[in-house]
Amino acid sequence: ILMCGETEWKQGFIPKEKGTRGRHAKGKAGNLAQRFQQYKTAILAFLRDAQIPFDNNQAERDIRMVKVKTKISGAFRTTTGTEQFARIRSIVSTLLKQNLSVLKSLTFAIQGRLQF
């Protein structure tokens, strides 16, 4: 993937003006190409290990549930309701990330015995 894109990236290099000093400017595409080549193993790690997500965007996945809720119901009615939903959703998300039982943990939370 990276080798095929190299010809495209080289088009992003800015030609050096005659008589100028200093480092040769590469442009945005050239800088991106250099970073891709430098971190190639980390960028393409998801191809070797199925447990590595290809996008590494956990924050977007966490916000998705709020967007789905507002899409279905239209909006939250109160600020308090929004805060309560966010708090509960945060707890559920944390429990899932730690492979803990959501139902059991929420039951303990209601009883005042929540432990992580």
Structure description:
The protein is mostly helical and 116 residues long. The chain folds into two domains: 47 residues, no CATH class; 53 residues. 63% of the residues lie in helices and 0% in strands. α1 packs antiparallel against α2. The longest helix is centred in the last third of the chain and has 19 residues. The chain starts with a helix and ends in a 6-residue tail after the last helix. The mean pLDDT is 79. This is Transposase IS66 family protein.
| Count, helices | 7
Order of helices and strands: HHHHHHH
Structural class: mainly alpha
Helix content bin:
55-70%
Based on CA atoms alone, the radius of gyration comes out at: 24 Å
Low-confidence spans: none
Beta percentage is under 5%
Mean pLDDT: 79
Total of domains: 2
Major pleated sheet = none
Distance between the termini: 42 Å
What is the number of strand segments? 0
Q: Outline, from the CA principal axes?
A: elongated
Features:
2 domains, 116 residues, mainly alpha, elongated
Describe what is shown at a glance.
The protein is an all-alpha fold and 116 residues long. It has helices spanning 2-10, 27-38, 40-43, 45-48, 58-73, 79-97, 102-110.
